TrEMBL record:
GO molecular function, one term: L-histidine N(alpha)-methyltransferase activity
Domain spans labelled Histidine-specific methyltransferase SAM-dependent: 26-333
Organism of this sequence: Pontibacter cellulosilyticus
Lineage: Bacteria, Pseudomonadati, Bacteroidota, Cytophagia, Cytophagales
Name used for this protein in its record: L-histidine N(Alpha)-methyltransferase
EC number, UniProt record: 2.1.1.44
Enzyme class: transferase
Entry keywords, A to Z: Methyltransferase, Transferase
NCBIfam families listed in its UniProt record: egtD_ergothio
Name of the gene: egtD
Gene Ontology BP annotations: methylation
Coiled-coil residues: none
Length: 335
């Protein structure tokens, strides 16, 4: 299949079969999470328009080493990585959680220079992000075939399995695997594997274990951007679900456990208070200093990642590191 200038319409899988939006699912998840004895909100709801903008700012912070490290991995190893992708002919390059694809574009440009036979399928829950990415790629890489998909990962993988039967290379970049609890990471990777055929590939970003002080500063920066990012989740509930959170009555709190290798983020209620949310029809009570858990970020050793991959039906082909070995991108083959 030759590359061409066709940029197909964006496939939107983010709406339910009855035509309703995902606002009802958002309200359901919030109602469930705030009704728990240990309150918990899913981190995937960070990324509305403002949340995505704040995360872009976080990636440019001096403390946030992750983006720079993975950028270095790709810049230093792009030819080798792309050669691995392209060694068996045509493939679909599927980018789960593509966002602005800033790092992926390093690989896209290299693949185009190598005249690799592929098309690019970015997947994201943000329709705005996919529209902006499609527009930018039309200008930057006009000869590349792009099919953007808006929706949850597994809806997109199911659609791809039904509509694109050729070889697949899946990207799961950043440290996104770290956002899952360990048992959930197994379920996630097993699900990804179920949509792939033997020999298909997965390139996964992994934040490695390191000096705990370096990790903690990355999630609690001096400028307070990460705190604003965390608090924006409450702002989104107010705007989209009719919540009545007073943001000044909550604070961001982050802690790293080096024994478990996990960074956890919370929102702490600064006083006893009740918060009504219109779309759930309920009022939620908070004790003074009560926490809402909002995010995990697990850090791995390479041995742990190899064990995880093997358990889920993948074998490691190659591990690519940054200079300081703060971060790795691991190339798996579906076995």
């Amino acid at each position: 299949m030759e590359l061409n200038s066709t940029l197909a319409p964006i496939i939107d899988l983010s709406r339910k079969q009855d035509g309703t939006s995902d606002t009802a699912a958002f309200a359901k998840d919030v109602a469930h999470g705030l009704s728990l004895n240990r309150k918990d909100l899913p981190s995937r709801y960070f990324y509305d328009g403002r949340g995505s903008q704040l995360f872009q700012e976080i990636m440019n912070l001096p403390e946030y080493y992750l983006t720079r490290a993975e950028h270095e991995v790709f810049t230093s190893n792009k030819a080798a990585i792309c050669s691995k992708f392209a060694e068996e002919g045509f493939f679909h390059l599927i980018d789960l959680g593509a966002g602005d694809a800033l790092k992926t574009k390093i690989l896209l440009q290299q693949l185009s220079q190598q005249k690799a036979d592929f098309d690019y399928v970015p997947v994201d829950i943000s329709g705005d992000a996919m529209q902006q990415l499609s527009d930018s790629l039309r200008t930057e890489l006009p000869d590349m075939t792009v099919q953007a998909v808006v929706g949850e990962y597994f809806k997109a993988l199911e659609w791809l399995q039904e509509n694109k039967s050729e070889r697949k290379v899946v990207l799961f970049l950043g440290s996104n695997i770290g956002n899952f609890e360990k048992k959930d990471s197994i379920e996630f990777l097993q699900s990804v594997r179920s949509y792939l055929s033997p020999g298909d590939k997965l390139l996964m970003g992994v934040d490695l274990r390191k000096n705990p002080d370096v990790i903690l500063k990355a999630y609690d920066d001096a400028a307070g951007i990460t705190a604003e990012f965390n608090l924006n989740l409450l702002r989104r509930i107010n705007r989209e679900l009719g919540g009545e959170f007073i943001l000044e009555q909550f604070r961001h709190y982050a802690i790293y456990n080096p024994l478990e290798g996990v960074m956890r983020s919370f929102l702490i209620s600064l006083q006893e208070q009740d918060v009504y949310i219109r779309d759930t029809g309920k009022t939620y009570h908070f004790d003074a200093w009560e926490a809402i858990h909002t995010e995990n970020s697990h850090k791995y050793s390479v041995d742990e990642i190899e064990e995880l991959g093997n358990h889920c039906g993948f074998t490691i082909e190659k591990v690519y590191y940054d200079t300081e070995k703060h971060f790795a991108d691991v190339l798996f083959s579906a076995s």
